[in-house]
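Supplementary Methods, section 5.1.

A reviewer requested that the exact input to the structure prediction be made available. We therefore reproduce it here, unchanged from the version used in the analyses.
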Amino acid sequence: MFGWLRGLRAAPAIPDAAWQATLRRYRFLADLPDADSIRLRELAALFLRDKRFHGAGDFMITDEVALAIAAQAVLPLLHLPGGLDWYDDFVGIVVHAGEVVARRSVTDVDSVVHEYNEVIAGEAMEHGPVMLSWQDVLASSVTTDDGYNVVIHEFAHKIDMRDGAVDGCPPLPAAARTVWLGAMQRAYDGFREKTILADRFGAEPPWLDAYGAESIGEFFAVSCEAYFVNRERFGAEFTELLGLFDAFFRPAR
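The structure derived from this sequence is encoded token-by-token as follows.
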């Protein structure tokens, strides 16, 4: 595995057959403009060079697995200054065959600890590794209409975490941060209201994954999924956020 990367420190060349196979499976990557596609390939190769993949249990990390994750993970970085520096707080990526049951504990306002199990498809840990379910990574090849992508979701969390707070806002100057949080809060409040109406009263559910209603940090990650894999629908649903995300992820040069 990765024999074509061994010993290289500059940007290596991903074999064309492997790259084309990835583009065929994940069509939203194949639809990128030529210049973006070239940049994506360069960043993916550097990502593979610098990160370490680990298969959980008996799961085997193949070239297909690693390249699929790398190509999707770097998509948000195409136009960001610094490139892979956004992901320099971690090295490891743990891949499970399927979803994982994680044990959680929360303390309520009365200082009572509640423990529960949560089924997760991925998780990003601050200054730590990223965990992904391969079955959900594969599902991203057919869920673009739904705006779903577990890889982009978890790596959006990594971008959010850069300033030390998972608050739905990437690192920004103070004035820009105020504008960003105001727009995000308005969109989040409206989205959360729709999910509550759908859950409690049978109203039409919102387009985005309802998991985004858990917190504004999750809403940011869910929004990033949709923005990168189905920008047209995302823009129709969240016009204000489209402009906000464009200004951050596609800054004028």
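The mean pLDDT is 90. These observations are discussed further in the main text.
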